[in-house]
Amino acid sequence: MVTIAITLSYRGSDFAGFARQDDQRSVQGELESALRTLSGSPVETVGAGRTDSGVHAANQVVSASIPRIMVEDIDRLMRSLNALTPADLVVRDVTMQNDGFSARFDARSRTYLYRIAQTGTPPLFMAPYSWYIAHKLDIEAMRQAATYLIGEHDFDSFCVAKSAQELHNNELSTKRHLDHIQIEPEVVMGEKMLSITIQGNAFLHSMVRVIVGTLVEVGLGKHDPSWIGEVLAARDRTEAGQTAPAQGLTLRDVTY
Fold it and tell me: Which residues are CB-neighbours of 154 under 8 A, at least 6 positions away?
């Protein structure tokens, strides 16, 4: 047996998330089904990030242990995987790794991209990949607010309450470290977007989407930028903003 890393891209719109689920379509389930067909036996995979239902990925990394014969021709393996997986899931790369490599635990950082449509009229081409907000956002205020999140903090307020409680019950931390948050306007397919790029060592359940929803409240003038510090200190999900819609979020990169 050998360990491999598989780099995937997928449109999350019609998936119930990355993690395998018995009764719903998932990214992990589709990939493991293809690997099982090729290997002749079940293959378990580990993903770098467990994206929620509707969330996309440009470069999701998955590790797996497979029979050595399967990697004698990497290009053939990639072609076979792409032939066996659905059109909204693409295998971009397959590389050999040292035994024991884990896509999840060996990752040094993850980068997410969230796009907000600021087009004045609803977006057409980017509608499946953005959150349309008709009102103009104060980008500078959002940038000031984002500075409160940089570094290591307890992000309990930015996590799904049930998930945070489960972590606490198992004596696990809700502390995470964010390296940077970049907020920049861009034009994609001729449509004006506000792109929020967030990089950190790891993320809690829906953490990026709650961060975005909270920054949007500042951008709309509902709160001063310093409010973010108060939300962090509260360690209470009800103190933060809404959870931004899933379709605007993409797992962009994972570094090792």
Answer: 173, 174, 175, 232, 235
Task: Give the active site residue among 52, 106, 156, 224.
Answer: 52
Query: Coil, helix or strand for 162?
Result: helix
d(CA 181, CA 146): 7
Query: Helix (H, G, I), strand (E, B), or coil: what is residue 250?
Result: strand
Q: Are 49 and 204 in contact (CB under 8 A)?
A: no
End-to-end CA distance of the chain: 22
Active site annotation includes 52: yes
Q: What is the enclosing helix (H) or strand (E) of 32?
A: helix 27-39
Convert 152-179 to b/e letters by CB count within 10 Å (16 or more is b).
ebebbbbbbeeebeeeeeeeeebebebe
Look-up: residue for tokens 């295998």? 91
Alpha-carbon distance of 228 to 145, in angstroms, equals 6
* Structure token digits, residue 205: 């359940």
Q: What pTM does this model have?
A: 0.94
Note the pLDDT tens digit of each residue in 218-253: 999 999 999 999 999 999 999 999 999 999 999 999
Beta carbons of 181 and 146 less than 8 angstroms apart: yes
Amino acid at 28: Q
- Residue 225 DSSP symbol: T
